[in-house]
Predict the structure of Catalase.
Amino acid sequence: MAGKPPKIPGTPAALEPQLAEPTTPVDPPEAKPDQQAPAGVTATGNPVDVDGARAQSGAFLTTAQGARLTDTDHSLKAGPRGPILLQDHHFREKITHFDHERIPERVVHARGAAAHGVFKANGAATTVTKAGFLKKGAETPVFVRFSTVLGSRGSADAVRDTRGFATKFYTEEGTFDLVGNNIPVFFIQDAIKFPDIIHAGKPHPDREIPQAQSAHDTFWDFVSLHTEATAHTMWNMSDRGIPRSYRMMEGFGVHTFRLINDAGETSLVKFHWKPRLGVHSLVWEEAQMINGFDPDYHRRDLADAIEAGAYPEWDLGVQVFPDTPEQTFEGIDLLDPTKIVPEELAPVQIIGTMVLNANPTNFFAETEQVAFHPGHLVSGIDVTDDPLLQGRLFSYLDTQLTRLGGPNFGQIPINRPHAPVNDMLRDGFHQHAVHKGVAPYKPNSLDGGCPFFAGADEDAFIDFPVELPAAQKERAAARSFDDHYSQVRQFYRSLSEVEKAHVAEAYTFELGKCYEQTIKERQLQILANIDADLCATVAAGLGLEAPAPTIELVDPAPSPALSQVGKTWPVQGRIIGIVADDTSDLGEVEAAVQAIDGADCVPLVIAPHGGKLGGTVPISRTFLTARSVEFDAVLFASPALDPRARILADETLRHHKAVAAWGDGLAMFEGVAAPGVVSATGPADAVSAVLELLGTHRVWERTAM
């Protein structure tokens, strides 16, 4: 092959396997180059040299206590055909541990994927916060977990759902967790309603179906009665509910936080993660296909991108508001988690950049056992009285007690702070620290008074003394929480026409899956209070009458920042398929591979069989293992008479993806004259054209085919 072979991700192990079972003892393999383990710190935050020390060691199989074994294929029996003996300690240890390998999955956000990375601050936040990790040039290790909300651990990735976007900053002042979502509003305004929305969204309790979906009666029964969920529902029915990739997904802190600077001055802020690759989504048919063909699609995409060196990046930004007694901005209640502040009113100010550059070494130890908590705060960052955030401060701590087996979950390696820990907390299940001294209480003299209190000049976390107005105890919400429609109307009217069409299709699909007509009619009334055309379109799809609005519809100023369409973005890490066969010009196929790899994208050759074309060009996929949903664009270097190639081409066109062909491959699109279908003069021309088209993600000008 000419040129440097491209890095094709997906290598399962660090060592290349032998054909026969190895019999010569060797040490355990190292981690793959794209992997990283939790940092080497003890349970109390002290750095240690643990390069590989937490991994298995030695070349020989042992018991859990280190005794070497000669056999693990046969139980100890009374003769070769006799019963197993109770004496078989190895069998009992092996089976007992196996029986207890699983821990309870998360009630929500059970299915996730994660990566290690680093956050570098640009210093722009120093005017509003004294947090050390946000000072100019500070670099902080991070661990990020992305997730779906409703589905179980074994559910599919590309379902229509909110995505979790949780970031653990291992700062020198303690751990800060920014526990957000890819949607900036929430279904509920008060945490006491959290069990209700999740019970409604989960599978029906009698049949345990449908899995990881909101297209069923209990969900729409709840949200059509509880109209504060309308904003989140609209966002979820938009393209935001089916992201193309975790790498192409915004993140939001959802709540309003209070920042304190060195002078003791406060500001209110909302956190935003802005992906460098832009915000992009799947189309609905594509998402449904992915869930069948590759239910691990988003997990695989994130891990493969990191392995290929296409490290995902996000800019962290804040919207900053004056900290007034009313805690409002331009008439928007900043304590209402179902509301946003349009970026045109308060621009997002970038305060740093995060790069994810390593995959976990062990999924269970890291991705499954990581524990996030909105109450993990550092000096300079405090919470507000948002009633949803206030409830999360309890719930996220409480949930770990059962899931991770007790109060010492913070000592699990992935959760350990990278700062000194002297907390006076003792004992409990799974205690890893070996504490010294005799006085875990204050005040004390037997341990010399240690630990001592820190002052503000020593970066102590101090709850900001917020002055509270006179009030009485009551179960109520502020009147400013009552508007459930105006921002939803603004969101919908800010979308492009193609995005509006997708919203209408999503509502029609979801409500069409409901059994009870009453629920459909109730939700149509909500849509009538948002937009008459949207309501009419959905009603027509359901075969029902469109009701009239029950409130006055006011036309808000659109917010262009809410639309995903209309901008051009980098294409690094995009996956481009090349359809070829044994009749193709191998030099041209190789030229296409090199051009795609040179653009920091991933070239995957698709052919009728595996192995190599002409003995030289590696084949990544066959017509049996490939499907259009894996690719962002497809090139055709041959006519590929196999009917599965025709299906691939048709799906690519139907999903508005860029396609190009040259030479004999032009026969695939004979008679097709549509935007984004490129008749190229050769591989260089084809690759160049497709890369340009990929900058806008899809060719939306192309009508459905």
About this structure: The chain is about 25% helix and 15% strand. The mean pLDDT is 94. The longest strand covers residues 349-360.
